[in-house]
Design goal:
About 50% of the residues lie in helices and about 0% in strands. The protein has a domain of about 35 residues. It has 2 helices and no strands. The two termini are about 25 Å apart. The longest helix is centred in the middle third of the chain and has 19 residues. It is an all-alpha fold and about 60 residues long.
Amino acid sequence: MRKTKITHVSAADDSVIDLRSRRRCQLERGGLDPVAVAINLLAETGPAPGWETDLDGWAA
């Protein structure tokens, strides 16, 4: 069995993740395609969400 690394995030980071998730759902419900959703999230929240590049990273 593989050990899972548990990463704890601060309350501020948790709030940003929650806001991005909610906004993404709103945009998708509005009928926007994935590229338009990504552009809107980038414009509204600043840095683009991405993948960790190290070996033990995970998608956020």
